[in-house]
Design brief:
The chain is an alpha+beta fold. The chain has 9 helices and 10 strands. Among the domains are: 38 residues, no CATH class; 123 residues, Trna Endonuclease, Chain: A, domain 1 (3-Layer(aba) Sandwich), CATH 3.40.1350.10. The protein has a 5-stranded antiparallel β-sheet with strand order 3-2-1-5-4. It starts with a strand and ends in a 5-residue tail after the last strand. InterPro entries: tRNA_endonuc-like_dom_sf (IPR011856), tRNA_intron_Endo_cat-like_sf (IPR036167), tRNA_intron_Endonuc_cat-like (IPR006677), tRNA_splic (IPR006676). GO terms for molecular function: nucleic acid binding; tRNA-intron lyase activity.
Length: 256
């Protein structure tokens, strides 16, 4: 079991290391202190260096064992609100017990399960988005995230590449470099994108050896119904609807 605590911009998971590691190994969800270390351990360069050190009778405490030791110290994973909502909606993250406030006991299920209690945590996430005025942006990002996941991509935060998301083949960043940098444009809320902006984005994306995927998304304006339901409740029931309009366009630069 894991303890989940909701903050304004993320959810912190704490618990047994094997369960935290399962989130990373089965879909690359969240981020933790050991992620970069695992990537370093599994790179051919590190493996070659480790082989060389063994060849000259290096001490038994190799670089790999030191990295493994650091990885094992990880005791927390940070999930974005979008990742958490996706896991709850698919029954991969199951709410077991409320601890009061904005903390819960949850469990991670590899195959997914039916969990009506998950709506309690979803409602809390949506309430946070309502309070800080980011509900429409959250809905758009979640709609795009879920669509890309259903297409088989491992979706990770793309802030380091100036994008909303980056996309990896199944296996994620431990096996591959990202193929796409995803830029999300909210129709009706963001100003139209100029070709000058697109060209600048493409050049930056190409320097990072990624392809640019421009996604325009339009989500319906949600309103509380007249049956006493709150805006949060209506939003939760509409999160996985087909009302969102999403258009994807791969953009590249032609150099004659």
């Amino acid at each position: 079991m894991l303890t989940a605590t909701l903050f304004s911009s993320h959810v912190a998971l704490k618990g047994p290391r094997d369960q935290l590691l399962a989130l990373w190994l089965n879909g690359c969800y969240g981020r933790g202190d050991g992620d970069d270390l695992r990537a370093k351990r599994d790179t051919p360069r590190h493996q070659a260096a480790n082989t060389t050190s063994n060849a000259i009778n290096a001490p038994t405490t190799t670089a790999t064992s030191e990295l493994d030791s650091e990885i094992e110290k990880q005791s927390e994973r940070i999930l974005s609100l979008v990742e958490t909502a996706h896991l709850l909606m698919d029954g991969l993250l199951v709410l077991v017990q409320s601890l009061g406030g904005q903390s819960w006991v949850v469990d991670f299920h590899l195959q997914g399960s039916s969990d009506s209690n998950g709506q309690t945590m979803l409602s809390a996430i949506v309430h946070n988005c309502v309070m800080d005025g980011s509900m429409s942006a959250f809905a758009a990002k979640l709609a795009v995230y879920r669509l890309l996941r259903t297409k088989g991509w491992v979706v990770r935060d793309g802030v380091r590449f100036g994008a909303e998301y980056v996309l990896y083949k199944p296996g994620g960043p431990l096996k591959y470099h990202a193929d796409y940098a995803v830029h999300v444009h909210m129709v009706g809320r963001h100003s139209p994108v100029s070709w000058r902006q697109i060209l600048a984005t493409i050049r930056f994306t190409e320097q990072a050896k990624k392809k640019m995927l421009h996604i325009s998304v339009s989500v319906p304006q949600l309103k509380a119904n007249g049956n006493g339901g709150s805006l949060e409740q209506d939003f939760v029931t509409s999160l996985d609807s087909s009302d969102a309009s999403i258009r994807m366009l791969q953009v590249s630069r032609w150099v004659p």
